[in-house]
Amino acid sequence: MILTVSNILQYQSFAEAKVLSGNVGLTNEVSGVMVMEAPDIDTWGRSGQIILTSYFALEKLTKERIDLFFKMAKTIGISAFIFKKNRLLDEIPEIFIESCMKYHLPLIQIPKETSYERIILEVLETIINRKAYLLNSYYDIHNHFVKMTLSEPKIIDVLKVLQQMIHNPVSLFEKIKGTLIATDNQSTDFKIISEQYLPKGQFMNFDYTQRVANYPYYGSGDTHTQLAVAIPSLGYEQYELIIHEINEPVSDIDFMAIENAVGILQTELVKHYSIKQTTLNKTNELGSDLLHGRIEDEEQFEDTLNHLKLNKSEPHRVVVFEFSEDDSSKNLFSLLSSRFSDTIVNYSKKEFYKLVYVMRKQKVILILPTDTIDSESLKKRLAYILKKAIETKPFSAFKVNVSISDPTNLKSLATAYKQAMDTQKIIHLINKNLQIKDYQDIGIYQIFSETNNLDQLARFIPAKINQLHKDNLDLLHTLEAFLNVNQNYIEAAALLFVHPKTVRYRIEKIKNSYQIDFNDPEEILQLSVGLRLLKIIKQ
User: Fold this and answer.
1) DSSP 3-state assignment of 532?
2) Which of 104, 126, 224, 457 sits between 20 and 30 A of 506, alpha carbons compared?
3) Of 536, 535, 516, 539, nearest to 526 (Cα)?
4) Residue 297 CB partners (closer than 8 Å, separation 6+)
């Protein structure tokens, strides 16, 4: 129990004491006692102190200096003033009472007969006993959690022990996934009304947020406070331990238990993260072997499918999420890309009951059984995942596209992966964001993407395009922009950041120098395809 001004008034040494300031500050915590000899309180004053004085040190000060003294006492956190009559002052000065009332400082008067020594001994005895009790409590709590750590407890076991110690329900919340582990389901339904950071006090090494929340289960009109402490962890997860102060406020001893619980929870979460990373690395390795067709031995192939829990009797598709930064997010991209990958995976797990995922730099690759999902339904579900993933503000600036292979058997997964990556190339060629395309959507480009010999692609590029590329890149880019906007001079100018007259001049030059008929749809089709093939070859 914390020692307060109200508590010390029950001591025998205060039997004849009078409180001159009403109920002001009687709940102030007391952590020490001192006799005042000089008015430089900013030098020797400490938070929680009770000051014993006969007013002698303040007697010759001006009103302004006295006001500054009490203002400083309030700022420091002095708990109370105890005035003792002496042979010079038989009555307490009015300015003393007024100043204590002004700054909400308790003022207690004791008779001449009461000795300072008696008060100091009684107060310090309680404080020393309290510190000894706290020390023993800390040892017992810490020892209990150390023994618990050696038994490799589950997270819920740690939470239950903490609840028993602090007599309030607790829960562990993971913000990114929205998962919650709680000791009391009734306390998990709440609405936060307000929150503020809690100043650090004794036994508080972590950062705490104090909230006022409404808990419908305990009465729709009632509010309770809760404490939330962020648990430092590895990876992208954001864990928060919540103490629901339903039964009683958290005490200083409770903070000892909470701090120890946070430590053991952090240890367990690091273990979970390490196991997860080991599993992920193994899955990435096996999944990559399948996607790149590196498994030739039949027994190894079967072992890989068993480990990844893939059913070879079902058709599968390969889905590739590929993302990059825009100019405004380059500094943050490297820090956020792994978190974004995790976010995509988590939403994918919620949307698809069975899947295998492989995580690569700027890519998340899903291997999905699709025997019951048609192409359009699959696109809708992937669109939902994409929408949820980029809703978070740090990710909203990412450029993300999704490509889907044709259904295939697991033996031909390498072919499906190539289809998905070829589709990504065509999406890049179109230069759009947030596209979801399957292999069938790229149409005629399948012919070219399936051709591994770049010289073969070059054969399909019209000679006029090759000559333009060699002679004048500005004219080539103007032609491309002009054809992409259906031969609209104004829109092409906007794309090129030039005046429409400049576009018109360049197009006339192209028409005359390279003998291009812009009214011939067949020639325009060949030129458009040629420009795109040129981009593919560059890539």
Assistant:
1) helix
2) 457
3) 516
4) none
